[in-house]
Amino acid sequence: MTAGDDAPPSGAAASPLRRGTVAWADLAPARGRQEDGHRPVLVVASRQYLETVTTVVVVLPVTAVDRGWSNHVPLRGRVGLGRPSWAMTEQPRTIARERLSRVAGLVDDATLHDVDTWLRDLLGLAADG
Fold it and tell me: Is the pTM of this model over 0.85?
């Protein structure tokens, strides 16, 4: 997905953010192989983080290109994007909340579980329990 794909209206995201929210964000400018442009992102920050840190948010870029990579997690739930999409777990980013334009939907718990598995691997964190 790139700028112009399902272009959302401008303005700040109206719905309160929560972990699992799919929202549109302006990721430009990017460097190197970072995802760029106006595209969907998946909010992966915890509830406590989102309540405490009110100016930035931790997200994963979302793509509509199925590369067949196991670390690209398919978004399931009420995603609101109108086409199959995948969270790119190899590219977590902290962005200013003002880069968000609107909320599209929300992924289900199974999607968040799969994302967490890949983020734990990426960050070298032990699995729960």
Answer: no
